Task: structure prediction
Amino acid sequence: MKKLQKTSELLWLMGILFVALGITILNKTNLGVTMIAAPAFILSEALLPFSPFFSVGVVEYLNQAIILIVLCIILRKFNWKYLLAFAVAVMYGYVLDFFLWLAKDIEITQLWLRWILLFVGSFSVSFGVACFFRTYLPKKIYEVFVGELVKHFRFDINKTKMAFDMTLLGISIVLAFTLFGDVATFDWSTIGTNSFHSMGLGTLVTTFINAPMIKVFGKLLDKVSCHEPMFKKASDFLLKD
Result:
C-alpha cells in the first residue's frame, strides 16, 4: 500500500477540526465532556449571563493563555514560539464555537444513542490528537505545557500527562460545585444519564479510552501516510531550537 506523501500540514488542520468536532459531539450527549475541555464549558456557563463575549471557544483560549503564563512562571523563561501555540488556541476556539453553533438546535433524547455518540465523539478527539502529534506546526498550549515540562525537568511524559489531566479534572470538579450555588441538586444516581455542568460519567469514560485510542489511531496514520512537511523551510525553522 502506497502511503500518502507530505501530509504534515493536512494532519495539523485535521487535528483542529476533529478535536473540535469531537468535543461538540460529547457536549451534545449531555454525559460529560473531556476533563481538558470541561473548564471552558463550566466557566463559559458561569460567565455568559454577564456577557455574550464569553463563549466556550473564547473561554477555551483564555484558559490556555493562563496555562501559558503558568508555564512561563514555572520555567522562568519565554519562548516566542509560545505565541504561535496561543494563535493555534485562538483558531481552535473559534472553530469549536462554529461547530457548537451548528449543533445548537440538535437534541438527542435516547440514552443509548447518547452513549454511542459519546464514543464517537471520544474517537474523534483521539484521532485529532493523533494527527497533532504527527505535525511540525504549533500545537495547542495543553500539549506545549506538558512537552516543555518534560523537556525542562526530564519528567516521565506519561506521568506528567496524567498529573496534568488529573489537575484539570480536579479544577473542573471544584468549578462545577462552587460557581453555581446548586451543589445540593447534584444526584449521584443520575451521573450516567445526565451531566452536572458538563461533568459526568462520560468525562471519566473518555479519560480512560482516549490514551489507548490515540495510540491506535497513531499507528493507523503511520501506516497510511508519511508525515513529511510540504513546506520544508517552514518545518526547519519551527523545529529549530
The two ends are 35 Å apart (CA to CA). Residues 201-224 form the longest helix (24 residues).
